[in-house]
Amino acid sequence: MIDSTPEWIEQRTGIRERRWATKDETVLSMATDAGRKALDMAGVKPEQVGAIIVSTVSHHIPSPGLSDYLAEELGCPAPATFDISAACAGFCYALTLAESIVRAGHAGKDGFVLIVGVERLSDMTNMDDRGTDFLFGDGAGAAVVGPSDTPAIGPAVWGSKPANVKTIEIQSWTEADKNPTGFPLIQMDGHTVFKWALSEVADHAAEAIDAAGITPEQLDIFLPHQANDRITDAIIRHLHLPDSVSVCRDIAEMGNTSAASIPIAMDAMIREGRAKSGQTALIIGFGAGLVYAGRVVVLP
User: What region holds the Beta-ketoacyl-[acyl-carrier-protein] synthase III N-terminal domain (predicted)?
Assistant: First the structure.
């Protein structure tokens, strides 16, 4: 559909494949599948969930939030529910909020929060835009955050760069009727985003490691938002990560799934034996806003 080749795309981004949802695979159905799997793996029952946080830019109903529909599908009787819009940093933002809710004792009597990142970006991809149309995929990932006697979530390093707020935008609905998909389309100045990620995001990754009180050599896993392999390589060099740190490159099979990319990649690494429960991982997300959020965690 564009004047390109698979080799050109892979060289520039690391993407070889991506996944697009079928007509029957909605953001709700994908979030439900991921949420149910996360609860099962954590051994947490729906009635034990005190809050649900969903990060997405793909739920096109203004109200109620996707989290409300998700609570109904999962059979959670009365959780606090809300959505956030933090684009590709959304899962890390949700984790920060969930941790705060648990620590403050506002996650119900059992103290569990379900966080979900879910996107259906295929509807919002401009197939005439040579700079973005090969990037985005669909999917969902989830995790359960709960009380622990041993801290397993390091301090958050998060923020934004409002001066570059227009660098990545999604059109308003008033423009959507002109588009083939009928949905607002993603618009991005890729060059500016790339430069920002290579410089400032790399610094924030280093800050997250410092905030956790460890050194890069003590990390087991580096799990960045799956945006671009060249960005990942640059952050690795900036942090001077040793070869002993396993680096996630799930982008090769999944493309950029925005808020879903970190939990999808984490799940894949654990299932495939490339990461183990209890290992220490640096996670960092960055995207539209321009927003970023990173922290060191112990893998569930």
Answer: 82-161
